[in-house]
Design a protein that fits this description.
By secondary structure, the protein is α+β, with helices and mostly antiparallel strands. About 30% of the residues lie in helices and about 25% in strands. It is globular and about 70 Å long.
Amino acid sequence: MHVPSGLQAAFSRWGVPLQNNLCSFKDQVRLLCRNGSFEYDLEKPSLQRIELAVCDFAPLHLLQPYRSMNHVPYFELEGDHLLCPRLAHLLHQTQQIAIVPFSNRQQMLVYTTTGRHLKALMVPKYTLVLDLDETLVRTRVAAPHEKVNIAANEAEFSVTDRQGLSRRCLTRMRPGVHQMLLWASGLFNIKIVTNGTRRYAEAIGRLLDPEHDHLLKRCHSKAAWQRLIVSREQLVPADKLHLAIGGSKSLKPLGLSPTDTVILDDDASVWCRNSSLSLLPFQHICRPLNREPQRGEGKAFVTNMRIAVWTKLVTLQTLKAHYIQTKRAKPITPNSRITGKQLQSLQSEKV
């Protein structure tokens, strides 16, 4: 998935800035509720008029499952400027939708059917689960008196282990990781699930986002850190599952739906079977971190990540739509959760 060159050129002509090859489209709009199912009070002035800030574009197929659901808040958007109808025209031409974050938990999927007027569905935000070691960073423990040269994409830090000993660590960051996190933080709820210790994971988090611009944007308390990071101490012990190191990872204990979650992890074997459908194709997104970085690798990582995320979400949402069509006994809403076991059974049926 990429922003079409025609779309970029059009927004550039209108003076709308482009950031990291993504379109930053902003306009003041009014929300007109059309189905009376929205949980917020639209009489409040702050909710009658909002800023429409487009963070990314996704395939039109992403809307499919929501058309079969009950109680999906549906809106029409009205703006005072020409940018809204122009955005509607471009979305109609490219057969895409615009992703607009609304709150920490919700987002708007903005689309058009005629190319003239904008419509929007209010749905829960998707979740992006990230591993750390060999996925975003590569870390090794340095010898006590080892002299090392720190490269531009490397960092040195110390972390205290369970025995109270201070370990000197050298970490190499994946090229493009900061740009990827900046893109993802505006679109998804991010969660780190790692077999590293909590102290180590928090130290890596501070290295990835020293200015609290993206990953740590909301980490202002201990509780916020707890929500962001799931570490080795919280995972199922390895000795019960015959894993060599650490523990088994699963979306179910985290309260995450596999249809609304995507996972980037270099090791798919540590994830339980019912969460495996949410895994992104790691080998197609980035190169192993034990190799020297190549020119343009960072940009390729961000581009491949965007393609893989939206492709995977369309696949998951299609399975969700199939489940809705075949299991009509219980009403399905945007907040309904479909388990990994149900998805596995649906996938085997389709095969």
